[in-house]
Amino acid sequence: MDAWKNYIEKVRWMMRKELLATLSDPRTKFILIVPVLIQSMLFGYTATYDLDLAPYAVLDMSHSSAAADFETDIDGSPAFRRVRTLSNSGEIADAIDSGEAMLAISIPSDFESKLNRGEPSPIQVITDGRNTVTANAASSYVERIAAAFNAERNPKAVAVALETISWYNPNLITRWSFLPSMIAMLAFNQVLILSGLSVAREREQGTFDQLLVTPLSPTVILIGKAAVPVLMGMIQSTLVLLICRFWFQVPMAGNPLALLTVLFVFTLSCTGMGLSISAISSTMQQVMVYCFLLLMPMILLSGIATPVANMPEILQILTYADPLRFALEAVRRIYLEGCGLSAVARNFVPMLAVAAVTFPLAGWLFRHNLG
Q1: Which helix (H) or strand (E) segment is 82 a member of?
Q2: How far apart are CA 14 and CA 25, in angstroms?
Q3: Confidence band (pLDDT; 50, 70, 90) for 45?
Q4: Please, how many CA atoms are within 13 Å of residue 97, restricted to the half-sphere of its CB?
Q5: The dihedral of CA 92, 93, 99, 100: what is its sign?
Q6: Which of 3.40.1710.10, 1.20.1260.100, 3.40.47.10, 3.30.70.20 would CATH assign to domain 54-167?
Q7: Where are the alpha helices (DSSP H) in 251-322?
Q8: Which residues pair with 126 in a beta bridge?
Q9: Nearest alpha carbon to residue 232 among 192, 261, 205
Q10: 325: confidence class by pLDDT, cuts 50, 70, 90
Q11: Which of helix, strand or coil describes residue 58?
Q12: Of the candidates 104, 77, 174, 162, the residue with the CA atom closest to the CA atom of residue 133
């Protein structure tokens, strides 16, 4: 019995020593508290498939009181916000392609006359199939409004009949919208970690100090360390692209070279972030913690699962510092829509801005270490 008490006492003292060592380190306390707070808040606001706000455009070719009543029902729903009133069918493509509208509702010219004759009057609902979750949710919301409209006019007959059309993904196959996004997301994970470990690995192995005393300038070191993660990221992206296209046979509408151009700029921004993390980390363990702290929030804020428009305004502002958001948008548009580089040019600006900030920052940190 005494031996057991002695053993338990030793374990208790060892636990106390480890607890004091853990809580006395400011970095450890930061790792224990801050990531949990940040990620729990982000998950609460962004990790949801609920569609709280669906921006839509309407094309009313009927200009009748019945059409006005139906539009009022939609505008009165808290789930919808009208962002554009269209004058012709040619404007539908621009509203959806630009991402301004999640769906477009087209009311035909004979809408009211068919209702008055007791005939089903079809209304077209055009959704953005690049995100199947939001497309399905938006369609179901319109169906509920149409059902309530029908019940109000004639409970025994189907007055408004919806014709749902999904652009870029006619059958709303989840794989079609998800796999193209993985081309950028998997590259993001690998490039950030690979570039982040580059300096920390040498510090642990004791070769970083030797590197600093060589004739190589910090700029040369920076370029050399950036080249490999960018190359690896492009190889991995190309591999995922080939699997997506030929193994899973997701049809590609755009130019592969345009897609690879987007991915190259994206990997540059990721590499800059990773090198900055690596330059401030003394161990590989710290790099992994910092990368984990960044990876999950940036994936959640990218809009890969839920639209950015549904996030709180402060989080929408934060997404402008997330290159993954703009890479995903550009990749989806090129892959599924067939857009050219000119159509996605605005997505390059945030990615290049991140690279323009992080590479000089990493260079300054390297020079600081030289001093």
Answers
A1: strand 80-86
A2: 17
A3: low
A4: 15
A5: negative
A6: 3.40.1710.10
A7: 256-280, 284-301, 313-318
A8: 104, 165
A9: 192
A10: very high
A11: strand
A12: 174
Question: Tokens 């290159």 belong to which residue?
Answer: 323
The residue to which tokens 């997301």 are assigned? 185
Residue 172 token pair: 């709303």
Residue 71 clears pLDDT 80, i.e. is over it: yes
Residue (of 339, 299, 346) closest to 130 by Cα position: 339
Say what the pTM is.
Answer: 0.72
Element (H, E) at 215: none
Q: What is the C-alpha to C-alpha distance for residues 274 and 279, in angstroms, rounded to an integer?
A: 9
- The domain ranges of the chain are 54-167, 174-370
3-state helix, strand, coil in the chain (%, to 5): 70, 10, 20
Asked whether the predicted pLDDT for residue 23 surpasses 70, the reply is no
Enumerate residues 6+ apart whose C-beta is below 8 A from 60.
67, 68, 71, 85, 107
Contacts of 369 (CB under 8 A, 6+ apart): 208, 212, 279
pLDDT at res. 30? 66
What are the residues whose beta carbons fall under 8 Å from the beta carbon of 326, sequence distance 6 or more? 347, 348, 350, 351
Q: For residues 90-113, give the mean pLDDT.
A: 85
The stretch 316-323 carries a mean pLDDT of 90
Q: Which amino acid is at 201?
A: R
What does the chain come to in residues? 371
In which residue are the tokens 């008055």 written? 116
Structure tokens belonging to residue 312: 């709180």
Find the distance separating the first CA and the last CA of the chain, reported in whole Å: 60
